[in-house]
Specification:
By secondary structure, the chain is α/β, with parallel strands linked by helices. It has 16 helices and 8 strands. Helix 11 packs across helix 16. Bound molecules: 5,6-dihydroxy-NADP and zinc ion.
């Protein structure tokens, strides 16, 4: 068992109607002016943005707004947001939306506080010394960005997608009303469930130690999302299922399911980020498309974990060798992806990279990871390329 620090400063306000408290929560931050940051328009169509503005008005909070954060949010809009915040004297960012609006808001927050080009943080050239405080009204249960220390941005020049993590960007509060996720397209709901499970699986599949309470919580979280993701395929308006998934999303990526183990694997995320950067795919779907190939490539190096996963998460009961049981668990996971209409290959994802493009992604992935990635099995560039080829 490894030593650990667990830091989750985000105040969670969870349940029906909680977005009405946003004005009060922002006012408590004692800020002068707020940037309301959102995505491509779902919050306008649902009426949520108007409700948020009304609540801010009632609490006497002044604000400016900037929409347009796209999935795989772009650096160009981040620069625009930084300029706007500096011009308007913004000192608090309120992200209303999914992971992309939140991550874009976090990047703007870094850019306002830190001198120089904000991309240098994502490019590992320097570290942040602070970030504007962030608040969140969440509309998509997926990334866990509402409590996480990370932000992922795509630079248009070269289509490079990179994450940057520091405690400075952990949101001050996160408003989570599961009802707000009921307007999601089914595909995005399924992408979200995939991403949530993956954040816990990235920590679970490790050779970096063991802590029983962490592993047991991780398994419970994974079983809960498995069950409720399937319910949401048939009943997208099921409040209980929406709520289970939404809270799981935050717990999956706020550090809880990593306590006592070292680092986690995160190779599937690294591999997906290159696919997102080059082909602009939805993050969760990209993860599903590559996971099975990753798992088959690494499982022998992390066999006890894969066997335990098969038994305790996927419910595999058949007898057999450890390898056979592990493989049955991987197959069951892929069956689950099919059941919620997620892809299990790049072809099913709708992308058809050439071998040159696979090599390019493996090269970029290796550079982004400093040459190697993984804990279930340490992957180098040639391993990354082999997994990409398996995932075609
Ligand atoms: O842009 P709008 O119009 O709002 O539409 C969005 C977008 O098209 C739509 N949507 C969101 N909430 C909705 C809704 N549509 C209807 N009703 C609602 N209630 O859904 C689409 C996807 O939204 P997006 O925010 O892009 O999705 P997600 O939350 O999955 O975020 C994905 C991004 O987060 C990064 C991913 O790589 C990707 O760039 N990640 C961030 C992490 C973090 N900060 O901790 C960790 C993750 O591993 C991940 O890498
Ligand atoms: Zn993710």
């Amino acid at each position: 068992m490894h030593n650990f620090e667990y830091y989750t400063p985000t105040r969670v306000v969870f349940g029906k109607g909680t977005e009405e408290k946003v004005g009060q929560l922002v006012a408590e931050q004692n800020c002068k002016k707020v940037l309301i940051h959102y995505g491509g328009g779902s919050v306008i169509r649902s009426g949520l943005l108007d409700r948020v503005k009304k609540s801010l008005d009632e609490s006497g909070v002044s604000y400016v707004e900037l929409g347009g954060a796209v999935p795989n949010p772009r650096l160009g809009l981040v620069y625009e947001g930084i300029e706007l915040c500096k011009k308007e004297g913004v000192d608090f960012i309120l992200a209303v939306g999914g992971g992309s609006a939140i991550d874009s808001g976090k990047a703007i927050g870094y850019g306002v506080v830190n001198e120089g080009d904000v991309w240098e943080l994502y490019d590992r050239k320097r570290k942040a010394a602070g970030c504007l405080p962030i608040g969140v009204v969440l509309t998509l249960a997926a990334t866990g960005s509402e409590m996480s220390d990370s932000s992922v941005i795509t630079k248009e020049d070269g289509w490079i997608k990179r994450g940057y993590s520091s405690d400075y960007c952990r949101p001050k509060f996160a408003i989570m009303n599961p009802e707000l996720t009921m307007t999601l397209p089914d595909y995005q709901t399924a992408c979200g469930c995939t991403d949530i499970m993956m954040h816990t699986m990235e920590r679970y599949f490790t050779n970096g130690g063991h802590m029983e309470i962490t592993d047991s919580m991780a398994e419970a979280l994974l079983r809960t999302v498995l069950t409720n993701a399937k319910i949401l395929v048939k009943e997208p308006d099921n409040y209980e299922a929406r709520a289970e998934v939404m809270w799981a999303g935050s717990l999956a990526h706020n550090g809880l399911t990593g306590c006592g183990i070292e680092g986690g694997d995160f190779a599937s995320h690294a591999l997906e980020h290159e696919m997102g950067g080059m082909f602009d795919v939805a993050h969760g779907a990209g993860l599903a498309a590559v996971w099975g190939s990753w798992a088959r490539y690494v499982y022998k190096d992390c066999l006890p974990r894969f066997k335990r996963y098969a038994r305790n998460v996927m419910g595999v009961e058949e007898e057999g060798s450890d390898e056979e049981i592990a493989l049955k668990g991987i197959e069951a996971m892929e069956d689950f992806y099919r059941e919620i209409h997620m892809p299990t290959s790049m072809e099913e994802l709708g992308i058809h990279p050439t071998d040159e493009q696979l090599k390019e992604m493996a090269r970029k992935c290796s550079i982004a990871c400093g040459g190697k990635k993984g804990s279930a099995k340490v992957l180098k560039e040639e391993d990354m390329l082999a997994i990409y080829r398996m995932a075609l």
